[in-house]
Specification:
The protein has 21 helices and 12 strands. With 547 residues, it is of the alpha/beta class. The chain has 3 domains: 3-140, Transcription Regulator spoIIAA (2-Layer Sandwich), CATH 3.30.750; 151-364, Response regulator (Rossmann fold, 3-Layer(aba) Sandwich); 382-529. The longest helix has 22 residues, at 392-413.
């Protein structure tokens, strides 16, 4: 039976062992790396039947590194079932008082003997047997726990590194950043423990989806250069119609981050933003969701264009925070996988992101809806009807209707209501009806200027109004009040009065809404009422003469 001793020249009988491994000098800040890359490869090469370990392997007697080596062995695939004998000058009770990791001494197939040759002679002829798979689970994994390293700042840091490891492994992402993260995961005892605990929950039979829509996607995450950017590039590279970019910055403080984000998003014209919830250390010290950097950035995004679809990345598992995220008008969220949360399947999580991105790109038309709404709002803030001889009280009431419907249209389309397209179309129709009511006296059937209104249909009446406002320009009237707008009026009537199952199309919404904007622009400043800048006019004539 082959045996090996791991020591620090602190036993008197190491010559009795067939093989020995001297625990050499190491970087105290990276002990797990030393064990993983120096000690374990030597053990795998020796192929022992029994492993003996001195409990203390440094000049500090209370630093029980031998116990840490024992854990590494138990969490290494080709060594994990082997018998382990720990040699100590102390008994198990005292060791357990000194270090919680001594709990391994109370698991099956791990033995403790005193640091004497006589004790070694008693145990060396023992009929050692390897653990079975069932014993490994019930008598080791279920009885021990490896705690999070003290140098980890937060739950967020662990979830980031673990998620990057899991996602890059499944997607076969091999960048410098993901390889660095992988090496850390595979060396660090804590992550070795998590890997073994998580293995039983993996599901590799789920197909990974590919994004199918077209548009621009922006990542804003303080861990962008730790692997997330590389991972998302791989996800989106299967679709050449998706333009993906990471937000590249150092994320030093909240103020500079917010300013940079505002400028970048405005310039990038992104359709979907994948946004981390918490960036700064202060974000991890409070449960006030409104104070999180990600939420502050989200508000900036909505100020730029509320039609930009935002997917939130979060490491939190608190249901109260997750519920509040939807109140902030996000498209959805992706949980960064903390290894303690076995409810998350990595492939399902990746597929959820792909679905959300496709959904967001499908809704990118809302950006145009938002821009039109903002332009309409600027026009409606002015007293655009003051230039016409209208009933002031009536004018104000219908101006209020126009302002309200203008906001309703975006809010309806941005909702999850199954009938949102129909309801938005009805809101646009009410917008048109309000304009007709302002310019036409229905009882007298006359226009605001006293001319008789001979046209009965909404379509023809609108054309007449634009024609009259545009100094008889029938061509322009027909261009604005065209067949596209007539479709809106026709579908609205069929939907309301004939009770027909009319199918409104998403692609029509920006076209119809833009027509409302065109109408408002003519009302605001009709050609025959426009005041021309004489200086500019003369200047233009002079330029033409010179050319």
């Amino acid at each position: 039976m082959t045996n090996v001793i791991i020591h620090k020249d602190n036993i008197s009988f190491f010559e009795d062992f067939e093989d020995e491994i001297y625990f050499d000098n190491y970087d105290k800040s990276d002990i797990d790396r030393y064990i993983s890359q120096e000690i374990l490869p030597d053990l795998l090469e020796i192929k022992p039947d029994v492993i003996y370990i001195k409990d203390n392997l440094s000049l500090n007697y209370l630093e029980l590194l031998g116990l840490r080596v024992a854990y590494h062995i138990r969490l290494t695939e080709n060594l994990k079932y082997l018998p382990i004998v720990v040699i100590s000058d102390l008994d198990g009770y005292i060791l357990n008082k000194l270090d919680a990791s001594a709990n391994i001494l109370f698991t099956k197939n791990t033995f403790l003997i005193q640091n004497t040759k006589s004790e070694y002679n008693k145990i060396k002829n023992k009929d050692f047997k390897n653990l079975t798979q069932e014993e490994y689970q019930s008598e080791f994994l279920d009885k021990i726990r490896v705690e999070q390293p003290k140098d980890y700042l937060s739950h967020h840091s662990i979830a980031n590194e673990w998620s990057i490891y899991k996602w890059s492994d499944i997607l076969d992402v091999k960048s410098e950043a993901t390889q660095t993260n992988k090496e850390k995961i595979e060396n660090l005892l804590y992550f070795k423990y998590l890997k073994v605990k998580q293995k039983q929950y993996d599901n590799e039979n789920i197909e990974i989806k590919k994004p199918s829509k077209k548009g621009k996607v922006l990542l804003i995450d303080d861990e962008w250069d730790k692997g997330w950017s590389d991972i998302l590039k791989v996800i989106f590279q299967s679709n050449r119609e998706i333009e993906f970019k990471p937000f590249i910055t150092t994320f030093k403080d909240r103020n500079s981050l917010s300013d940079l984000t505002y400028k970048r998003i405005a310039n990038e014209n992104s359709d979907v933003v994948i946004l981390d919830l918490r960036f700064l250390q202060s974000d991890h010290e409070t449960n006030d969701i409104d104070s999180y950097t990600g939420i502050k950035i989200l508000k900036k995004i909505h100020e730029i264009n509320a039609g930009i679809q935002v997917i939130m990345l979060t490491a939190t598992s608190k249901s109260t925070i997750l519920e509040k995220l939807y109140e902030k008008k996000i498209l959805g969220y992706i949980k960064k996988e903390h290894p303690d949360d076995v409810s998350i399947n990595t492939v399902e999580n990746i597929n959820k992101l792909v679905d959300l991105v496709d959904d967001g790109l499908e809704k990118k038309y809302l950006k145009e809806i938002w821009n039109i709404q903002q332009n309409n709002s600027l026009i409606l803030q002015k007293n655009i009807f003051a230039q016409y001889k209208l009933n002031t009280e009536k004018n104000q009431s219908y101006l209020n209707i126009l302002q309200n419907e203008n906001f309703f249209i975006f809010d309806i389309l941005d909702s999850s209501n199954n009938n949102r397209l129909a309801y938005a179309a009805l809101s646009m129709a009410r917008f048109l009806e309000a304009i007709l009511t302002i310019f036409i006296d229905e009882k007298k059937q006359i226009f605001w200027d006293g001319e008789e209104c001979k046209k009965s249909s909404v379509y023809n009446q609108l054309q007449m109004i634009i024609k009259k406002l545009d100094d008889g320009n029938e061509t322009k009237a027909r261009n604005i009040i065209n067949s596209n707008l007539n479709t809106l009026i026709y579908n609205r009537n069929k939907y309301l009065h004939a009770n027909d199952n009319i199918k409104f199309e998403q692609k029509e919404m920006p076209k119809w809404f833009l027509k409302l904007n065109n109408i408002l622009e003519v009302i605001q400043n009709p050609p025959k009422l426009r005041v021309y800048d004489r200086t500019n006019l003369l200047g233009n004539l002079q330029n033409k003469f010179n050319n």
